[in-house]
Design brief:
There is one protein chain. By secondary structure, this protein is of the alpha+beta class. It has two domains: about 100 residues, no CATH class; about 80 residues, no CATH class. About 25% of the residues lie in helices and about 25% in strands. It has five helices and 13 strands. The strands form five sheets. Strands 3-4-5-6 form a four-stranded antiparallel beta sheet, with no helix packed on it. A three-stranded antiparallel beta sheet has the order 11-12-13.
């Protein structure tokens, strides 16, 4: 392949600047099915706008998720809906009313607003997303990459102070331990986010080594940079 045909992405954050091939990020994208989640997020925003328009235009006789509107006030609407032991007419908060087609539930006479349909779809996608596993390698237990990147002081505090899987006594791995983890292949098919990951090894004050677990790039970053985190026990 022509070298100049390869696409690159700039990755930079507060003192850490690198160039990565776009293919490097494939594992991270699939890790939480981000493409599908992004699509459903757009759908959710569109759906919310349509619901907001419906609420603003409510008038007597309009049909809601719980039945027809029989009276409208600025922030409340009265709807006709038979609820066992609680009568047939109910005042609902206008911003909690939905168009017909959404569920209508009352618990002990209290209205329970439904979720957006796209929000339910998002929950389903996240439920089906693969879960990251703990890994044993080099006599250590490795926690899955945590859910968000963070600067080095926060990463160090997270490992030192967090009870992970019910255990305390975790720490950041050294750069050599991270390199050994990469070379072992133990993270393969474990659902890990394979990107730049902090080590405990300092280069100089306020600068620490990190290891990119997708292709074992060992480099340094300023401690204010946001990098991914795994802890060892």
């Amino acid at each position: 392949m022509n070298y100049f045909a390869v696409c690159f992405m700039w990755f930079f954050s507060a003192g850490l600047i690198m160039i990565f091939p776009l293919s490097v990020f494939a594992d991270a994208e699939s890790d939480l099915n981000k493409v599908a989640i992004n699509q459903v997020t757009i759908k959710k925003a569109t759906e919310q706008k349509l619901v907001d328009v419906f609420r603003k235009s409510l008038t007597e006789g309009d049909w809601t998720n719980c039945g027809p509107v029989i009276e409208v006030k600025s922030k409340m609407v009265k709807i006709s809906s038979a609820v066992a032991n609680y009568g047939n007419e109910h005042w609902l908060i206008r911003n909690q009313v939905f168009p017909s087609g959404y569920s209508c539930d009352f618990v002990n006479g209290e209205y329970q607003p439904p979720q957006l349909k796209a929000a339910l779809e998002e929950d389903e996608i996240r439920t089906m997303a693969p879960k990251a596993n703990f890994v044993s390698q080099g006599g250590l237990t490795w926690s899955p990459i945590n859910g968000s990147s963070m600067n080095w002081p926060d990463a160090n505090a997270y490992c030192n102070n967090t009870a992970i899987s019910g255990k305390s006594g975790w720490r950041l791995p050294t750069k050599d331990e991270l390199s050994a983890l990469y070379n072992s292949g133990a993270m393969k098919d474990q659902g890990w986010t394979l990107l730049a990951t902090w080590s405990s090894t300092p280069r100089r004050p306020d600068v620490h080594y990190f290891v990119a677990l997708n292709f074992e790039l060992v480099d340094v970053g300023g401690d204010s940079a946001n990098v991914w985190v795994t802890c060892v026990h």
